[in-house]
């Protein structure tokens, strides 16, 4: 019983004193990377839709409703 209690005390002491884990700087860098990558992806999609997809779509709509020609 004493050996079991001593082992549990030592194990809890090691866990409480350990320096292992994730720091605030690591988390901040991960969040910053996610924001930057998300902004790049959204910027790329906006550029793609703004210059490629929307003008073609607009022309197709005009052609579809242009009954005179």
From TrEMBL:
Entry keywords, A to Z: Membrane, Transmembrane, Transmembrane helix
InterPro entries linked to this entry: DUF6133 (IPR045765)
Transmembrane intervals: 28-49
Protein name (record): DUF6133 family protein
């Amino acid at each position: 019983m004493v050996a079991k209690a001593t082992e549990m005390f030592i194990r809890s002491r090691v866990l409480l004193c350990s320096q292992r884990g994730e720091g605030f700087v690591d988390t901040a860098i991960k969040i910053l990377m996610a924001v930057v990558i998300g902004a790049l992806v959204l910027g790329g999609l906006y550029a793609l839709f703004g210059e490629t997809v929307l003008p073609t779509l607009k022309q197709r709509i005009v052609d579809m409703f242009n009954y005179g020609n």
